[in-house]
Write a structure and sequence with these properties.
71% of the residues lie in helices and 0% in strands. By secondary structure, the chain is mainly alpha-helical. Helix 7 (195-202) packs antiparallel against helix 8 (207-218). The chain crosses the membrane at residues 20-46, 81-107, 119-144, 164-186, 218-244, 264-287.
C-alpha cells in the first residue's frame, strides 16, 4: 500500500503576536505595585505641594498648589540635617560592606560544611533581632554607665560630644546592617572561583594584590548592590538616630516624624520625605552610572 505524501510544504510556525499568558500573570502584580507603591508616593508628592496653617491638622482647606514647603531646604539647618543624614549613612554603609565582605569571604572559603552552615544560620538568626533591642544594647555598652563608655571616658574621650555620638550611631547601624549585608555578599563570593586567586599567586603576585585584582574586581557588582541596600536602610532609619543620637544627631526621617506627628504639618513632612527619596535615588543612579562606566572600561 502506497501512502500519499502531500508535496505542499508545512506552514511555518506563527511568530507574530505575543502570548497572553505571561501578560495576564504579570497584570495583577503590576496593578498591585501601582496601587500600593506608586499610589501612596503620588499622594505624598501631591500633599507636599499644599500649604499648612498652624493650629490645624494637615493641609489647609482649598489650599493652592505651592512649592513653599520645599523652601525649608534653603535654610542652613535643614541642609545640615540632609548632609548629616547622607554622610553618616554613607559611612555606615561603607563600613558595613567592608566588614561584611571580609566575613562573607571567610564563610564561603571554610572547608567544613557544618561550620559554614552554622555561621550562615547565625547571621540569619541575627536578622530576627529587633532593632530596638540592638539600639539599647549599643546604648548600654557605649553610654555613660556602660563598660566601653567608662573605658573611653578614662582615656579622655568626651562622651557627650557630637563626634562621639555620631560614632555611636554608626556602630548602631553596623550592628543592624552586618548580618543583612553579609547574607547578600555570601552569594556573591560563592560565585567566584578561588582558582583565579591561585593563578595570580602562581605568577608571583602578592596576596593582597591578587585578592584586589581577582576577588574584589569580580565582586564589584555584588559589593555595589550591598552598598545600595545598606545605604538605603541607613538613610531611611528612624529608631537608630532617635535613640542613639540623643537629640544631637537627627536624620530627615526624624524631622518628617516631627512634622507629621507632633506639628500635624502633613505638607511639611511630605516635602521632607520627598526630598529624602529624590536625593537617595539620585545618589543611587549616580553610583550606578559610575560603576557601569568602570566595569565597561575594565571589560
Amino acid at each position: 500500500m502506497e501512502l500519499a505524501v502531500s508535496s505542499r510544504p508545512c506552514a511555518p510556525p506563527r511568530r507574530g503576536g505575543r502570548p497572553l499568558l505571561p501578560v495576564a500573570l504579570l497584570l495583577p502584580a503590576s496593578v498591585a505595585a501601582l496601587l500600593f507603591i506608586c499610589g501612596p508616593l503620588l499622594v505624598l508628592a501631591w500633599q507636599s505641594l499644599l500649604e499648612h496653617v498652624p493650629g490645624q491638622v494637615g493641609a489647609a482647606a482649598d489650599s493652592p498648589l505651592s512649592y513653599r514647603n520645599y523652601l525649608l531646604f534653603t535654610s542652613p539647618s535643614y541642609l545640615n540635617f540632609l548632609w548629616g543624614t547622607l554622610r553618616i549613612s554613607a559611612c555606615a554603609a561603607l563600613a558595613a560592606v567592608l566588614l561584611s565582605g571580609l566575613i562573607a569571604y571567610r564563610i564561603t572559603r571554610i572547608r567544613s560544611g557544618w561550620a559554614r552552615k552554622a555561621l550562615i544560620g547565625l547571621m540569619l538568626g541575627l536578622t530576627f533581632l529587633s532593632v530596638l533591642v540592638r539600639v539599647y544594647a549599643i546604648s548600654l555598652t557605649f553610654g555613660v554607665g556602660g563598660p566601653a563608655g567608662a573605658f573611653l571616658r578614662s582615656l579622655g574621650v568626651a562622651l557627650g560630644s557630637r563626634e562621639y555620638i555620631e560614632c555611636v550611631v554608626i556602630l548602631g547601624f553596623l550592628h543592624f546592617l552586618l548580618p543583612i549585608v553579609t547574607l547578600i555578599l555570601i552569594g556573591t563570593f560563592q560565585g567566584i572561583s578561588g582558582s583565579y586567586y591561585e593563578a595570580a599567586r602562581s605568577l608571583g603576585v602578592a596576596s593582597w594584590r591578587a585578592h584586589l585584582d581577582t576577588t574584589v574586581r569580580l565582586a564589584l557588582p555584588g559589593l555595589y548592590s550591598a552598598f545600595i541596600v545598606a545605604f538605603s536602610l541607613a538613610a531611611s532609619s528612624f529608631v537608630i538616630p532617635l535613640v542613639l543620637g540623643q537629640g544631637k544627631v537627627l536624620f530627615l526621617a526624624n524631622l518628617a516624624y516631627v512634622r507629621f506627628g507632633e506639628m500635624a504639618d502633613y505638607p511639611g513632612g511630605a516635602a521632607v520625605s520627598i526630598v529624602l527619596l529624590a536625593v537617595s535615588l539620585a545618589i543611587v543612579g549616580l553610583l550606578g552610572k559610575l560603576l557601569g562606566n568602570r566595569l565597561g572600561r575594565s571589560a
